[in-house]
Amino acid sequence: MAFSSSASAFLTQAKHHVFLSFRGEDTRNTFLSHLYEALKGKGIGAYADFKELPRGEEISSALLEAIEKSMISVIVFSQKYATSSWCLDELSKIMECRDSRGQLVVPIFYHVNPSDIRKLKGSFEEAFVDHERNRIDKVKGWRLALTKAAGLSGWSIAGDKPEPSVIEDIVKDIVNKLDRLSKGDCEGLIGIFPRMEQIKSLLCFGGEDVRIIGIWGMPGIGKTTLAQAIYDEVRGQFESCYFLADVREKLETPAANAITLRDQLLSQLLNQHGLHIGTPRMPFFIKDRLRRKKVLLVLDDVNDWDQLEKLEICHDHFGSGSRIIITSRNKQVLTNGSVDETYKAKGLGYNDSIKLFSLRAFNQNGLVDDYKDLSNKFLEYAKGVPLALKVLGSTVCEKNKAYWESALNKLKQHSDPKIHDVLKISFDGLEDVEKKIFLDIAIFFKGCGIHSVTKILDGCYNGTAGWAITNLVDKCLLDDTRENNLGMHDLLQEMGRIIISSESRWPEECSRLWNSDDVCKMLKNGKGTKSVEGILLDLSQINHEVQLHPRAFARMPNLRIIKFYNPTLSRESGMLVPSDQGLESLPDELRYFHWENCMLKSIPSNFSPKNLVELRLSGRNFEQLWNGDQNLENLRVLDLSHCKNLIRIPSLSASKNIEQLKISGCKSLVELPSMVHLKSLRFRLLGYGLKNLKKFPELPQHIEELTLTCTAIEEIPESIGFLHQLVRLNMSGGRIHNLPSTTIQLHALRKISLQSCRNITNFPIVPENIEHLVLGYTPIKEVPSSISRLKNLASFVMYGCTRLKSLPTSICKLKSLVFLDLRGCSNLECFPEILETKRLKYLGLSKTAITELSSTIFRFVPLEGLDLSGSDIVEIPKSIKQLSNLQYLYLSNCGNLESLPELPPCLHFLVAGNCRSLKRVPQWEHAHFMEAGTFLLSHQIGNSEFLFNNCFNLDGDAVNNIVANVQLIAQCTAQVFAMKSSEVAAYNFPRYSNGFLSCFPGSKIPKTFKNRSKNSSITVKLGPACSSKRFLGFLLCIVVNFKGPHKFKVCGGRCQYLLTTERLDRLDRDPLELTHHWNWNAPFCISFDSNHVILFGSGFGREINESINNHFDEASIEFYVTACDFDSNVEHIIVQKCGVNVLYEDAVRSNDKEVASSTNYRANDEEGLDDPTTTIRPRHRRCFSSDEVEEPEPKRLK
User: Fold this and answer.
1) Any idea which UniProt keywords this protein has (predicted)?
2) Active centre residues (catalytic)
3) For residue 306, what is the enclosing H or E element?
4) Among residues 7, 11, 5, 12, which one has the least CA distance to residue 393?
5) For residue range 313-341, what is the model confidence (pLDDT) as tens digits?
């Protein structure tokens, strides 16, 4: 897998968009010609051979090539299609390309029945009688191709709709398919499509469970590329996404403390810039937020499962539908952890290796004839490793044969060639400055920001770093990542280390040092030399104190880079301790000085920092930088974070190029120097936890981000009004009493955070254009009516404001408000009538004193989430059904709530657990769930959840209605899937939706489940494989029994399927093993105080469903549940009973059959008899059929 310079191989080789296979005698001058013109009209290149082939003539090689070079093949089956051996040869070739190349195939059944084709009836039977006399050698292959093609999803044209309208629909479908192909070309990644499909099948997109998948293989094999390609393709389906690269480097030792890295990850997933938790375990609120998000997370290059534990990566921390991909060089890392599936990444095959090498060496897809023998020798050497293929190809690009042969001879000099030997050939072709910059990055700056590294190395190499880095990226020696960081493969980095080590047998005479033993020995003995240009020391690799020689750096006048750091973020590491004489000097050539846990009290007084570009120091002993003014004209970054004893920062008047100042954790810092003249300080001033900082600093007018949290500042000066470019202001946790009046002059300010400012008792003064206002956990008692002037306010957070009793009616003027969070405002007794807020999507009122809601709240048509959990609400107004976009309704722990009204049709999360007074739940209408089913599929939402755990006062009708509702939504989701398969395909919805999850107290399987068992396993018969019955999925029910005195929390479970057959014509088919995982979405864990009934659905996607329909007639299912507390006695949680119904497409479509069985259910009813197949029907309702809908859509067959 690798990047090519153009489109992917599949799309590059395609000459035609569509190949049309048809019987000219039937359709040439009618349907086919119209379809051909319609495709041309959309700019689609369609190949159609309109010549009439004489009977008996063989199909031409040109026609076979046209099939191979087409992206989609359209087969128009007509009455006389099978009479043509030419058509049947075309069909065989098309199906061969589908199987071998993944070509898309679209069958059109033009006035023929697909069943007649599969079973060779009617005209197809007659045609094959003739073929068996004349072409017996090909008949078997033709018959197989016909059967496969007729079983594909396609279009049926039977005269029930005008042909132009049908053709228009077909062309739209083809355009959508071509569009998805072009979007999925992954920017020319070679050999990646089959691998991506295999991983995507393991990820099971569309399911509502949380799945963790591992990719493992040797370095350079393409694990990261594969994970990135999948990430890029599907990231749009998730609420939050993050690709965390180089986990191994960031968390290298088993004892690493990953708090900061974990916080960085959470900051990205929760879309909260600068999130800082600082504790080993996530707070409950953060976990709860994360569990409400459907995230896509890639953790790249993990080498120990302990690293994932430190990052708190596990199933129960992510929202329903989340997907986590982990790459590692060690399979054991994945198998020892709780990944759901693993995938081994393998090297490229010979053909793909040729393509990749040729693109790099010749800028074309194939080998040059004169270079074939030489090329094959390079291919043999690379052995399918994409990184080696890219680098070798780039090395010999545009070189003559003599150079090629020389390069090969150089490879042969190595007795045991390895990949890094191959890569050195590319290094040898670099210019001197490129070599130096490559080595600097390999040792010191891998993974660092391009902008920062460029500035540092520009200072070392006279402004040539940008040019050199661009060349190194082009020659595949560096990767320019999406986050603008410099990436480098491990093997390339190792190659750089070997090159440096070969400079001298004595480490202190090499240009760069990184081995901890060598560095410590040199610094302890003061044995450095003028050859040393850079030192890197990983402090986590030493577990003791190393005493520095007073002249540790005196003999290294050319030292440009010092980097003493702890990549594991662990406090438990060794340290460099100066001797009693201190440190005499530092080299004036220093460009980059990074020393974590620095034990110096100050920088040596004779050091001239004029060449410094970045200065990063942290340490509990550090008290001051230097005395007096210094020439700091090249300084770009000053990071003094966690210098706990730093009292002051000297004048920065000469640091006119400084861009960032970071002072977080400087607890002793009392004041900051004037920064008014720092014109480059545009980006940020970050300071968290400055508890002794009492004076607000003087700042440059163009600063954009200001963070000063937990300070002793009590007053912000009026001069803040001059910071006209300030966008984000965070003064959380401080002592300020309010914002100054001049704050209203900050027209660029978009976000203010004053969370946990305990002295703010009055609503702060904020500019009118503010968009995000966070005032949580403040003692504010009242929100003024003047809030109506904040016309752009989109997010308003006042959670935990326990003194707040009411909101002003003027809040109705906030027309831009999207997110309103009042959770935990325990004295808030009423909510105003909001009439003009047209964009509100989330309203949080949990744990408030509100007992009733005004009906006007339900005029918020855009509202998607409403949280009333833990409130004193007594009744939900009936007008709630007007909220046509409401998807989430949280009512858990509403102890006074007695009944539920009819709810909106698109609601797919209802959490009503522990509502101990709840008695009545309505039965919803069929149309309600038809609309909901359409919504679920079109929005690619796999699950609805209706949770009533521990609702022990539910009356008999309520329980009956819950069962009926659950079965109804399963039926309607399946029905919508069947009726609208073309729309579903357009959304690329890969699986049949689970449809629902539900639970309520009880001990019996409902009677509507005819397949039942009194233990945790069951075997059910599947319907016969015929055209009229299409398998869609299972409707499942279990009774979970809890033995013991303890309460239990269940986070989900799984179903293990074994599909088999007893039919003689299918005995060669191996059993199919499948696993379906299910998990609660919100909340993640469900507490059960007694036995409960759990209902859910299970489906497997089109291809697997089709395989089940065609090849299997029996399913054995084993049920399991998973406890949230993994240390608890899981043996006390038992699946006591189970029930299964089988869903079929024809059953949910038909209108001439009704299920006579009632949905009536009582918790203690006895179970009924088994029935091998069951169709679910709503009580007193029936499903729509095509003749009940005016002007039906053309049938899409599956």
Assistant:
1) Hydrolase, Leucine-rich repeat, NAD, Plant defense, Repeat
2) 90
3) helix 305-310
4) 5
5) 888 899 999 999 999 877 767 877 678 99
Residue 325 is predicted with a pLDDT of 96
0.70 exceeded by pTM: no
**Sequence ranges of the domains in the chain:** 3-182, 192-344, 350-413, 418-502, 974-981+991-1147
CA atoms of 310 and 250, how far apart (whole Å): 12
Q: Retrieve residue 17's tokens.
A: 């968009």
Tokens, residue 791: 């016309």
Q: Quick check: do 3-182 and 418-502 share a fold?
A: no
Taking the domain 192-344, which CATH number applies? 3.40.50.300
The residues, ordered by sequence, that sit 6+ positions from 1190 with a Cβ below 8 Å of its Cβ are: none
| Nearest-angstrom CA–CA distance, 1168 and 1016 | 17
Cβ atoms < 10 Å from Cβ of 1026 = 13
Q: What is the DSSP letter of 719?
A: G
Strand partners, 1066: none
Q: For residue 530, how many other CB atoms are within 10 A of its CB?
A: 11
Going through 869-1013 in order, the beta strands assigned E by DSSP cover 888-890, 909-911, 945-947, 997-1001, 1011-1013
Q: What is the pLDDT of residue 221?
A: 82
Q: Please check whether residue 277 is in contact with residue 259, taking contact to mean a CB–CB distance below 8 angstroms.
A: yes
Scanning 939-1047, the segments in alpha helix (DSSP H) are 956-979, 981-986
What H or E segment, with its residue span, contains residue 115?
helix 114-119
- Using the CB atoms, write b or e for 835-863: b if 16+ within 10 Å: eebeebbbbbbbbbebeebeeebbbbeeb
Query: Please, are residues 883 and 904 in contact by the beta-carbon 8 Å criterion?
Result: yes
Q: Produce one character per residue of 694-729: b if its CB has 16 or more CB atoms within 10 Å, e if not.
A: eebbebbeebebbbbbbbebeebeeebbebeebebb
Calpha distance 144→62 (Å, rounded): 24
Please name every residue paired with 485 in a beta bridge, in sequence order, or none if there are none.
449
Distance of CA 398 to the CA centre of its chain: 40
- Write the DSSP string, 536-559: EEEGGG--SEEEEPTTTTTT-TT-
Model pLDDT, residue 1177: 29
d(CA 1092, CA 1112): 32
Yes or no: say if 117 and 1197 are a contact pair by the CB < 8 Å rule: no
Is 127 exposed, middle or buried, given 0-12, 13-18 or 19+ CB atoms closer than 10 A? buried
The answer to whether 966 and 973 are in contact (CB under 8 A) is no
With H, G, I as helix, E, B as strand and everything else as coil, classify residue 3: strand
Q: Which CATH class is domain 418-502?
A: mainly alpha
- CB-CB contact of 112 with 59 (8 Å): no
Poorest-pLDDT segment among 38-47, 59-68, 998-1007, 1044-1053:
1044-1053
By percentage, how much of the chain surpasses pLDDT 70? 82
Locus of tokens 């020995």: 521
Where would I find the beta strands (DSSP E) of 295-402? 295-299, 323-328, 341-344
Nearest to 842 by CA among 870, 855, 823, 856: 823
Q: Indicate the helix (H) or strand (E) that contains 202.
A: helix 193-203
The Cα–Cα gap between 714 and 708 comes to 12
Contact (Cβ atoms closer than 8 angstroms) between residue 1099 and residue 1037: no
Cα(758)–Cα(664) distance, integer angstroms: 21
Strand, helix or coil for residue 682 = coil
Closest CA to 150 of 86, 89, 63, 78: 78
Residue in the structure block whose two tokens are 């004779």: 606
pLDDT tens by residue, 1131-1163: 668 899 999 988 877 554 443 333 323 334 444
Q: Are 267 and 287 in contact (CB under 8 A)?
A: no
- Of the chain, the end-to-end C-alpha distance in Å amounts to 33
- Classify 3-182 by CATH class: alpha beta
Residue 73 is encoded by which pair of tokens? 């093949």
Among 949, 957, 875, smallest CA distance to 915 is for 949
